Input
Amino acid sequence: MDITSIGRRSWVLVGVGAAGIALAACGGTKAPPEVRVATAAASASVSQTSATPAAPKATAATVASQTCAAFAQTVDPYVLRVVDKQRGLPADYRPSDLQTIDDRWAAPGFPNEIMRAQAASAIVEMLSAAQAQGVTLRIRSSFRSYAEQQRTFQFWIGQLGEAQARRESAPPGNSEHQLGTTADVISANSGTGWELVEQFGALPEGKWVTAHAHEFGFAISYPSTEAEAVTGYVWEPWHVRYIGKACAAEWKSSGLVLVRFLERLATAPAR
Ligand SMILES: [Zn+2]
Output
């Protein structure tokens, strides 16, 4: 595909040679399947039935039993760590509890998605709830290693030049996907198949994610075109990061861009 023939924000799925690497605007890459299988080889499988048998319906009211500050005191600090263009992760950082998510939740052609245990359960819970309401969402991308992100970023620099690449792709070590708590969720109802395109945000599926992701512990890291001034990234209505239900509820009600919310949380006194 000639990427010069289509809009910058719509060419997010591009085949790259024989390796067939697909790339996403949020700095995404899908490693060749053999690589992803290898990284998940020792992982347990997460299915719908293994999702946390929680309250019948997750709402702000049902998740308010714990404050975000209290959650922050007990959870692995990486779950609430700021990851942006200035504050990155060690090249060798790799969560120890990555699990394979049942392929029934994977977008066609993107099997073996892996996330940290809590995030994997939460995203299955979210996608199950959406499906029960007739909203079909699937995972297009999840954990990415430093090396995977490095390949992606270099590709985009070659395609776009560094300045534009940095608006749409994270440098290695600076992607939330390396946390293992972040996923790109997408619908086939975008008119372009399962691609990550900005118009997803205006679809019923995208609006559902915007309205409900926090109920399952997810924040939308790059929530609007206007937020690019804060995040440095274009609007990515598909990109969700798990921060726990209590923090996600407080993030949603705060109205803050996620990176600002996490900064404030990090400096808040313990309660
Ligand atoms: Zn993403």
